[in-house]
Design goal:
Number of strands: 7
Radius of gyration: 16 Å
Helix content: 10-25%
Strand order of the largest sheet: 2-3-4-5-6
Strand content: 15-25%
Order of helices and strands: HHHEEEEEEE
Shape: globular
Number of helices: 3
Length: about 200
Amino acid sequence: MLDLLDWRRRVASLYAGVRANPDAAAAHALWREGRDRLLAGHPQSPLDPQARAAFRGLPVAPYEPGLRFDVEVDPGVEPLTWTARTATDGDVLFRRVGVVHLPGLGSLDVWWLESYGGGLFVPVRDAAPDTYGGGRYVLDTVKGADLGGDAGRRRLVLDLNFAYNPSCAYSPAWTCPLAPGGNVLDVALSGGERTPS
């Protein structure tokens, strides 16, 4: 349990450093280095010991400024719930609290995690052939993966360059909530973490 606490603290600290950096490309480089360090050496890494020994860094696309959005959450959506069935946490319930519109790309549902710590969750699945088929995570505040925004004005920073693979992309030992229908974009996203080899 203390390893998980340490993992979450390190992720939260990494994202705090990213938010504090005014240069988005430099912040992205910091994030890449931090993710690599965590996956390579932390006991909570989804990589098994053999994969950690061979690990040489995550496949991440170069930073593209056009994939960063400061968007308003539109709360005028039909209330929906969605349950992710997991092997370790049982049924994990999400409630749709809004939608964000990404110019030129489409819309993504914004979900609230109804269990344990609560938090906003925005996964994304896209049409790129080299991204994880179940989708990636852009925002997962219960785990500290948060690029900021102005909550009082219902605004979020969603930077698709920071889209990362869930743990289940690296090991079948993990069960992860995957992107539901309202979080699928018809376009291929060129930014973010790619499919692991």
